[in-house]
């Protein structure tokens, strides 16, 4: 295989974002007719590299060569024209249109004279059928896309890539929502593509898959290129140690918390959605920081949202302070003194057009109400100002709109929103995502202090060092199942990665 | 831009609506100095009063990120309801020929309750059944007109305009404190009281804060433990009650009512709100802004007629102002990015 021509080469690609070196002289050489796995932890820079390839980001330095010729890719259309296609992790089809409409979206074949052009439905149907026949996809081109399973939609995306005469196809976590059988179908399509000389860049966290389907493996870590090896020479353990092999560079505050009695016990929690988490049981102690580790698709967010009443469960028990309770809405969760900091700060956290004051006070509003239905403005302002000081939130004033604050300060405002409700249990979903390093340390310090005060914390994190540096215990999930709970002080990254990729059926 | 320039630019942006209002008055006054008189001001305020109450009602819904199309038809319904119960005893086509005279407050309360009921229905359809507000209120708009027309067509009225209203009722619409040039119409006082009440709800109560939060980011509102359903229900209900009050005042002011009263008022209300800085995307809007929006249209209506501009031209000017105001307002949020 090594004798095959190098189709795509990315040479010394670097990309810097304010405060972060996302890519540091990364190299990638992909041969025609092979599957090239790109591996690395969350945040290692895989997606950034692919976005550079696809023209979504412009690299600061470095070059991209296609067929040994230097190319400039300034947008995704240019990438498509050069024969580079990407199957996104989250597919963005138009559900209310049929399969072939989606397939030819933006480039419908037309017929007619001069300015009077009509979409050539017959040609579209013929082309679609031919394409599906070539790729051995068994699908009715006229069925509504919204009625299809994720795997079918994905095969359409692949067909689309092929129809662009793609020479390089990037697949970002293509199997994250597929069943075993569907994965096999996908692999058949991939093998067929290989025979046609297409190069595939395959991004996945699933070790078995990587070893089964790929020819070569490139590992990245912290935005740096670690190396490329033939897949045949690698084992799961070798890949993991290459992915995580480093010292803990980030610093964490010292923790003085002392986990006590069990506060919350979860027994056999199962989501209504069959694809989500199943049969999860664990304890949370008073004053404990319980980390939750796992990869994309491990259903950690879904679990934590169910604990807050945002998602429905089909079975399972919540036992809070030895009493069985039910949590069917955030209102109920709040009553039981549970707070949630969501993963998507912009989408479900902040009220962008409202001030820092309103953003801080909103969850505690009921307790500012006086007997005349009016709010105690003095108390609201005092609380907000105190929060600003305590959490050292940098804002010109509490009247400033929250959208004008930095990510770290927004996150602190959200934390203070929940702290005002005096929660006993804080659920934190990726609390430091998108926050610069300095602010991260401050958030860690706040979390550590809260635990010392005896509050219990559940923290989802995709950053290994953060998980290891902050947690008393770490609970690891894989594909909706709990695969293990380890001691945060003794666990190793390898151990967590192994649990996170350990598939239970 | 220097810091001072930036500050004054921001100030202009934030207060653009008031500057436009004052500018408009100055331009008309230069054109015809007689415009600046106590009578003019009183007339504009008088004409703007019910519109202000309606616009404030509509704002409750707009700020949650919704829109209420039933506004005008609710005004028509409550105008007819209150008028039908407040006719003089010896009026020949009395709606209820044998009914004794009711105390003034009773029909008024019934009419306001009817408006509130429509609001509750709107709120229920939107909050409980998750129907988009545009569609939900489109449905009730049509239904309310139907209900009103059936009532209006009942014997012995049979779709005749309702007239012969009691003087204590019409006095409410046309009477004033004091006499002569410096008198203040009751209806203006009512609008001012309502404005203060709404301002208190918007800025001093939990319901108001929740309204801004729901409009600002409904997902975050749910996560924050706000009972979005219940709050929406209350907000639509208050909006309905305000339309109800406005309908009563319209009947009192004009001394009559038909089932076509209030037709298309929702559009005037929405226009006044957006010109006054209410964001149709939700989460933004203040009472002073909305009142300024109402007054701008009041000044245009009265002022342009006063200086003799063709009413059809007035429509074109109004339309331009709506579009320009929103285009300008949107810039305020765009250039921050």
Largest inter-chain contact set: A-B, 31 and 25 residues
Distance between the termini of chain A: 34 Å
Distance between the termini of chain B: 16 Å
Strand content of chain A: 25-35%
3D shape of chain A: globular
The total strand number of chain A stands at 22
In the CATH hierarchy, the third-tier topology of the largest domain in chain A is known as: Rossmann fold
Summarize model confidence as the mean pLDDT of chain B.
91
Helical residue percent of chain B? over 70%
Structure description:
The complex is a heterodimer of chains A (505) and B (337). Chain A is an alpha/beta fold. Chain A has 3 domains: 242 residues, P-loop containing nucleotide triphosphate hydrolases (Rossmann fold); 154 residues, 3-Layer(aba) Sandwich (Rossmann fold), CATH 3.40.50.300; 64 residues, no CATH class. Chain A is built from 17 helices and 22 strands. In chain A, a hairpin with a 2-residue loop joins β7 and β8. In chain A, α8 crosses α17. The longest helix of chain A has 16 residues. The radius of gyration of chain A is 25 Å and the shape is globular. Chain B is 70% helix and 1% strand. Chain B has 14 helices and 2 strands. Chain B has a two-stranded antiparallel sheet with strand order 1-2.
Please tag this protein with its features.
heterodimer, A: 505 residues, alpha/beta, Rossmann fold, 3 domains, six-stranded mixed sheet, 17 helices, 22 strands, 26% strand, globular, B: 337 residues, mainly alpha, two-stranded antiparallel sheet, 14 helices, 2 strands
Provide a compact summary of the structure.
The complex is a heterodimer of chains A (505) and B (337). Chain A has 505 residues and is of the alpha/beta class.
């Amino acid at each position: 295989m090594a004798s095959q021509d190098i189709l795509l080469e990315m040479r010394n690609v670097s990309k810097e974002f304010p405060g972060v070196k996302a890519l540091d002289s990364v190299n990638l050489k992909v041969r025609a007719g092979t599957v090239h796995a790109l591996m690395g932890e969350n945040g290692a820079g895989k997606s950034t590299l692919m976005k550079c390839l696809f023209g979504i980001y412009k690299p600061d330095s470095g070059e991209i060569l296609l067929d040994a010729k230097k190319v400039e890719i300034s947008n995704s259309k240019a990438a498509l024209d050069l024969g580079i296609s990407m199957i996104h992790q989250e597919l963005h089809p138009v559900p209310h249109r049929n399969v072939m409409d989606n397939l030819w979206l933006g480039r419908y074949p037309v017929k007619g004279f001069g300015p009077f052009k009509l979409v050539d439905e017959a040609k579209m149907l013929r082309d679609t059928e031919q394409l599906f026949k070539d790729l051995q996809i068994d699908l009715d081109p006229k069925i509504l896309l919204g009625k299809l399973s994720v795997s079918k939609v994905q095969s359409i995306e692949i067909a689309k890539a092929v129809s662009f005469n793609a020479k390089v196809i990037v697949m970002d976590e293509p199997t994250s929502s597929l069943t075993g059988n569907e994965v096999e179908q996908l692999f058949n399509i991939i093998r067929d593509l290989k025979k046609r000389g297409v190069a595939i860049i395959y991004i996945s966290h699933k070790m078995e898959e990587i070893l089964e389907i790929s020819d070569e493996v490139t590992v990245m870590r912290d935005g740096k290129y670690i190396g490329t090896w033939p897949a045949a020479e690698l084992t799961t353990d070798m890949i993991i140690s290459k992915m995580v092999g480093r010292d803990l560079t980030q610093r964490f505050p010292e923790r003085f918390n002392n986990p006590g009695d069990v506060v919350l016990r979860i027994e056999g929690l199962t989501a209504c959605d069959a694809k989500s988490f199943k049969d999860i049981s664990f304890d949370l102690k008073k004053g404990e920081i319980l980390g939750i580790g796992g990869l994309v698709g491990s259903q950690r967010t879904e679990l934590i949202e169910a604990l807050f009443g945002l998602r429905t469960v089909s079975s399972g028990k919540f036992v809070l302070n030895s009493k069985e309770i039910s949590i069917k809405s955030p209102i109920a969760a709040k009553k039981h003194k549970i707070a949630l900091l969501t993963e998507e700060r912009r989408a479900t956290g902040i009220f962008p057009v409202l001030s820092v004051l309103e953003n801080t006070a909103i969850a505690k509003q009921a307790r500012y109400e006086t007997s005349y239905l009016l709010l105690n403005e003095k108390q609201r302002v005092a609380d907000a100002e105190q929060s600003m000081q305590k959490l050292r939130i940098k804002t010109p004033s509490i009247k400033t709109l929250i959208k004008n604050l930095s990510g770290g300060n927004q996150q602190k405002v959200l934390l203070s929103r929940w702290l005002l409700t005096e929660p006993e249990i804080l659920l934190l979903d990726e609390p430091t995502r998108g926050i610069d390093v300095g602010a991260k340390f401050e958030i860690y310090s706040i979390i550590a202090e809260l635990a010392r005060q005896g509050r219990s914390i559940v923290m989802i994190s995709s950053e290994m060092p953060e998980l290891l540096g902050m947690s008393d215990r770490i609970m690891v999930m894989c594909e909706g199942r709990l695969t293990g709970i380890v001691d945060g002080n003794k666990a190793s990254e390898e151990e967590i990665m192994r649990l996170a990729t350990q598939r239970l059926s | 831009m220097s810091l001072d320039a930036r500050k004054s630019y921001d100030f202009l942006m934030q207060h653009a609506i008031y500057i436009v209002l004052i500018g408009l008055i100055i331009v008309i006054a230069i054109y015809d100095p007689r415009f600046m008189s106590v009578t003019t001001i009183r007339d504009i305020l008088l004409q703007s009063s019910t519109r202000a109450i309606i616009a404030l009602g509509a704002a409750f819904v707009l700020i949650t990120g919704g829109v209420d199309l039933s506004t005008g038809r609710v005004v028509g319904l409550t105008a007819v309801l209150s008028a039908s119960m407040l006719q003089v005893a010896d009026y020949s086509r009395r709606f209820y020929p044998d009914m004794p005279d009711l105390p003034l407050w009773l029909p008024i309360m019934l009419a306001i309750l009817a408006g509130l009921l429509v609001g509750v229905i709107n709120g229920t359809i939107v909050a409980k059944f998750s129907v988009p507000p545009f569609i939900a209120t489109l449905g009730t708009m049509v239904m309310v007109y139907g209900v009103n027309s059936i009532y209006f067509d009942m014997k012995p009225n049979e779709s005749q305009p309702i007239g012969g209203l009691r003087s204590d009722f019409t006095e409410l619409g046309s009477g004033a404190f004091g006499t002569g040039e410096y008198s203040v119409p009751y209806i203006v006082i009512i609008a001012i009281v309502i404005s203060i009440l709404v301002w208190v709800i918007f800025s001093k109560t939990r319901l108001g804060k929740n309204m801004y939060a729901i409009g600002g980011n409904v997902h975050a509102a749910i996560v924050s433990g706000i009972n979005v359903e219940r709050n929406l229900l209350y907000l639509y209900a208050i909006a309905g009650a305000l339309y109800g009050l406005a309908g009563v005042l319209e009947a009192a002011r004009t001394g009559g009512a038909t089932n076509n009263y209030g037709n298309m008022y929702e559009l005037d209300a929405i226009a006044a709100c957006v010109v006054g800085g209410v964001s149709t995307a939700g989460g933004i809007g203040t009472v002073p802004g909305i009142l300024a929006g109402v007054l701008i249209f009041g000044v245009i209506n009265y002022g342009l007629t006063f200086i003799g501009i063709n009413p059809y031209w007035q429509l074109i000017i109004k339309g331009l102002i709506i579009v320009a105001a929103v285009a300008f307002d949107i810039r305020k949020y765009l250039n921050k990015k």
